[in-house]
Specification:
The chain is α+β, with helices and mostly antiparallel strands. A hairpin with a 2-residue loop joins strand 11 (243-246) and strand 12 (249-252). Helices cover 33% and strands 27% of the residues.
Length: 348
């Protein structure tokens, strides 16, 4: 029921829709990931075809790159590419190219080769486990871009134990492909959300309202701020999803590739608004991994529209880039946080 409360926030604020337009809402679960699709259509006869096409675009992309489907495209390629150079399909070429770019930009913090590390912690299937240091070290040794040879659109993996994990970046790809479908079919008003934190939208009328969640709240319906946006994509990366408690610590899914452990950071949440949903996802994760100072430097240098939520002395503070301040209303700098006694990051 909590998920439904969250969905209600993602509402198009159009109240005077022409009678010729049909308002379509669809809710799905694909590979245990919630997907929301909304759009305005002019032709009722084509709504079923459009809905089915968008669903299949998103479904095929999420399933192709899911870490939990053993015989899907990425896990099958992961096996084939260890014996010979293997040609990448266009989707994988995009993700690998973006991953290499952001890996260099963050000095190695964006790393798609950490599949076995994520599996060790149990984050992909939520079968959580607190690993020993030697277990983490073993998996870190089997990770790294140094094991990848890329020639044109072909890839060769030089370590038989390496495993990819493209989450959450393939969500940005699914959003980009669905957006392109809507645009190519002349649909100007649409909203797509995947896993609640990643969305793309367009409107030639009013605005879409996006809720930024409170990363310290156990409730999925508690929000820090609301964004009103007509066009673009929003990506939220933080410690608020997919986490587990062990003793006094909470361990989250944002892995530091240098340690193989959940990132130790005072940053709780990073929200990025960008024209391209793929870049939005990469940037939100990159800024979070770089931390407050490194992330802010990266964002300001590249004029990124970003907002940071930082844990600080029992409160959270909100930091904004110059681009964010220009685009959105000013936010209150500090607000009290409930249940702030438990550290949200790993101190071990």
């Amino acid at each position: 029921m909590q998920k439904l409360k969250f969905v209600l926030i993602l509402t198009l604020t159009i109240y005077s829709v022409s009678h010729a337009q049909i308002n379509i809402h669809r809710y799905y679960h694909i590979d245990n990931i919630p997907v929301i699709v909304k759009f305005l259509a002019d032709n009722e006869e084509k709504t079923t075809e459009i809905t089915d096409d968008v669903f299949n675009i998103i479904k095929s992309t999420l399933e192709d790159f899911s870490p939990n489907i053993s015989d899907n495209y990425i896990n099958s390629l992961n096996k084939r590419a260890k014996s010979n150079y293997t040609r990448m399909n266009p989707d994988l070429s995009i993700l690998v190219s973006k991953s290499l770019f952001y890996n260099r930009l963050t000095s190695g913090l964006i790393d798609i080769t950490l599949g076995r590390v994520y599996d060790l912690w149990g984050f992909p299937n939520k079968n959580y486990y607190l690993p020993k240091l030697e277990e983490i070290s073993n998996e870190i040794r089997n990770s790294g871009f140094k094991y990848l040879n890329i020639s044109g659109n072909s890839i060769f993996i030089r370590n038989k134990n390496l495993k990819f994990n493209f989450y959450p970046f393939y969500i940005g790809l699914a959003l980009e492909k669905a957006k392109n479908y809507f645009t190519s079919h002349g649909i100007k008003n649409f909203f797509i959300s995947i896993n609640y934190d990643f969305s793309v939208m367009s409107s030639d009328k009013e605005t879409w309202t996006i809720g930024i969640p409170n990363p310290l709240s156990e409730s999925s319906s508690e929000f820090i701020e609301f964004l009103k946006l007509k066009n673009g994509s929003v990506a939220i990366s933080g410690v608020h999803r997919n986490r587990f408690r062990s003793g006094l610590n909470i361990y989250h899914e944002i892995i530091n590739p240098k340690t193989g452990k959940p990132l130790d950071t005072e940053l709780l949440l990073v929200t990025v608004v960008h024209n391209n949903p793929i870049d939005a996802v990469f940037l939100s994760r990159a800024i979070l991994l770089l931390g407050e100072h490194g992330g802010l430097r990266l964002a300001e240098k590249n004029s990124i529209t970003a907002m940071f939520i930082k844990f600080e002395s029992g409160n959270y503070s909100i930091l904004k880039t110059k681009s964010w301040a220009k685009k959105f209303d000013k936010l209150e700098n500090k607000k009290p946080v409930k249940n702030s006694k438990t550290p949200i990051h790993n101190r071990n």
